[in-house]
């Protein structure tokens, strides 16, 4: 009896020491987690202060010379490097989480193996009491099965949550962009206007010779792209009235339902930046773009509206879950999805016709990257369809019949 009581006391002491050790390990683990979170917040605060200092320093400078341009390129590369570093840190964190889960599963498997070995040993030692042996084996088996099921359910929920978070980030991305300064905006506007003026004044343009519902074309093939324009005169239409309804619509992203944009930044009453994203072939390709929409009032000559994509390496600072260049994304099903950033330039010219200003000419143009279909005039058919859609939506279908 004394020997049995001594063994029982020894088991109680061993269980208490084990529980005490587990509690200490748990407390030490949570202290480490808290310290890591505090350090992470400090890092984010320092990065935010650094970004603010960079924006402040470059926002107060005048137009930069060649040396400052090189410095700006260096800053852009540094920002790209920081973005890549952040992505690498996130990948390391995910890898660490995966290794932790794998380690837990291995530990559980090892524990269960040891426990079953102990049960087998107990079975050998307790042959004289088969009913007690079978009951304990069944209870231990059910306990282990329940633990494994709980772990599997927990991991399934966690993976489902991660997939849902990734889907939400893809559908509603949180974007951090570099500020577009007034100097950069006016430089883009001046560059765009000079390109438009050069094309309109060029004497090297060709034409298909077709006249479809009053639309006429001009184009120039230049290496791997074609510069084009389509124009039509609208009689009995006041330009100010058309522009008064068109431009406010372009400033409101909820009205531009065909572009599905998210209003990233509104510079002023004459410019706005849209973020555009679209998946093709059921997610096989993701197309993205930052589109700067600008309006220039030329006074008596009319108006110019420019749609020009921005360089994502310069404009995009951080995007949750998505790279800022033409790299590949990893989809939820494990395959890599290529990301294509659009590079386009489209413009619309609205000018008065006649002295009474009761008529106006609408010219839409831009540049298209060359392909095998340009020689077959497919580009003309597509652009003509887009121009006629614009005419129907803004002016009305009756304009198609008034030649």
UniProtKB/TrEMBL annotation:
Domain of life of the organism encoding this protein: Eukaryota
UniProt entry keywords in alphabetical sequence: Coiled coil
Coiled coil: 29-111
Protein name: Uncharacterized protein
Protein species of origin: Phytophthora megakarya
